[in-house]
Amino acid sequence: MITLNSVSLQRSGKVLLEGTSATIHHGQHVGLVGANGCGKSSLLALLMGELQPDQGDVSIDLGRGIAHMAQEIKALERKAVEYVLDGDEQLRAIEQKINNAEATGQHEKLAELHEQLLQADGYTARSRAEQMLHGLGFSNDQIENSVKDFSGGWRMRLNLARTLMSPSDVLFLDEPTNHLDLDAIVWLEGFLQRYQGTLVVISHDRDFLDAVTDITIHIEHQKTNTYRGNYSAFERMRAERLQQQQAAFERQQKQREHMEKFVERFRAKATKAKQAQSRLKALSRLEDIAPAHVDSPFTFRFPEPDKMSSPLLSIDQGELGYGDKALLKLKLSVLPGSRIGLLGANGAGKSTLIRTLAQELPLIGGKRQDGEHLEVGYFAQHQLESLDPHASPALHLQRISPDAREQELRNFLGGFGFHGDKATETIEGFSGGEQARLALAIVAWQKPNLLLLDEPTNHLDLEMRHALTMALQEFEGAMILVSHDRNLLRSTTDELLLVHDGRVDVFAGDLDDYSDWLTKQRTQATEQQNEGSEEVAAHSARGRKDQKRLAAERRNAMRPLKRQAEKLESQLDKLQTRLAAVEDELADSSIYDAAEKDRLKNLLAEQTDLTKGINNTEEEWMTALEELEAFERELS
């Protein structure tokens, strides 16, 4: 159990929590939500013991301990799979003791240590670590690479795998889906759903929160408010509470009226296709939860494009890639109103396709035809690097439209959260989220009729993601979207394309079907890997490690034989001791007197039995010793 009792916390002179209390029971999976800067990460640091409250107290029943994700990696020379295994410190300690015992010939100690290894699931540890790495997107070759060979995003995945490898009863995760693609997020959801301890997670991915949490703690006005249920349930309950406040209710009514008009307009255009119906459901859901966001600092629209062409863009027999190496082949026609979501594994070519459509990459083969009035608005994470750190948000827009009035610029930027002086201060100290909002504002300001969005929700909090979803719903032009945010995909697209095996094909199902498809692909890949590993095991590094594991299992199997040999040796000692005593009595001349006839008879019979017993026991003992020696020869 985790308990906060009248906790107050300040950071840099700002009050984050004031006299707040909360209780998290064992086994609950908690989503920690709230506006940026409200203190979510500080509260997590408080629970982990990295911060101390200014007032009140925090208590935690640790059980097997706490696991949380480190932000840095020091063991850069370590192999990826070994780095992940290092997360289980108990396992590593037992392995070290086994190595020491083997080096010093402590065979009795080895038996005890291998029992400890068995209890710690040590014989399955490497397999579990490899499964985690595969689930998070690492290939078989990559798991044997050194940590230093990976980029920052992939190192964060390694840290996540290492954290999940650590035995714990309390797990703290701060934005674990950052740097993950949709495939890895789906795997992580499955893992966390099976986690039996207490989970506290911060995330801006609402579908992820819905999948892995059953309690939501919302930080608002320096207080923690606990809601039963996942993030969607929290939204509904908060919406009901806000509706009871008159001012919020009036704003909500205006927003609801606007949403209803848009829903009806879309319904009139929509076909009965599965994706269209799915989008209608998403629209209705957005209408229901809208009141939960009436106090959001973000509200904006993508202005209506000035002109349209049909098609806006078409590619025939296209070959896409880098240099002269083609990675993808496709035929594509983008019509006004097209709302396309791209699916596919990391590295399959989604970003390559987006960059080619944005003309950052030339076509290797095929023909591209742009519509007469095509105006592309392109957003990708690398564009944040092209922002001028010495310019303000207003100046960025003014450079595009020199004749625009300052108030017009301020009004537009206000929808993206740049209010007051924030619109005119240089962006040098802006956070990643603020820079992403500015980049989106720049795209929207230019009135594109085709939006190309590559992971636009990275660095954005839940409120800004909701505002972006609403804006894309109302966008009149065409859109092609790459995102690991399933709520955004589900709510704004009505056609899915799958980038896979060098092709771009229409995906007939919805996102739930895609999750099933991923599971099937992962199962098939695992089966193929297992088949391949069996063929090369004896000649590969993994084969040598498997042999070491088998040797450990043999040592474990040797323990009963060793105990049997020790038992037989003890019995043999007792029999020989008794035989010596009997023979001493038979050596006494008085035993042969007529009066001792019966006693002599009994001693002679016992001597015979003892001799026979000694011979049989000695034979069994020698057999056990030979089997033990055979085991030792196999292990040497």
UniProtKB/TrEMBL annotation:
Residues 2-246, 312-526 form the ABC transporter domain. Pfam families: ABC_tran, ABC_tran_Xtn. Residues 66-104, 558-634 form a coiled coil. InterPro entries: AAA+_ATPase (IPR003593), ABC_tran_Xtn (IPR032781), ABC_transporter-like_ATP-bd (IPR003439), ABC_transporter-like_CS (IPR017871), ABCF (IPR050611), P-loop_NTPase (IPR027417). Residues 522-549 are annotated as: Disordered. Residues 522-531 have a biased composition (Polar residues). Keywords: ATP-binding, Coiled coil, Nucleotide-binding, Repeat. GO terms for molecular function: ATP binding. PANTHER family: ATP-BINDING CASSETTE SUB-FAMILY F MEMBER 1 (PTHR19211:SF14), ATP-BINDING TRANSPORT PROTEIN-RELATED (PTHR19211). This is ATP-binding cassette domain-containing protein. The lineage of its organism: Bacteria, Pseudomonadati, Pseudomonadota, Gammaproteobacteria, Oceanospirillales.
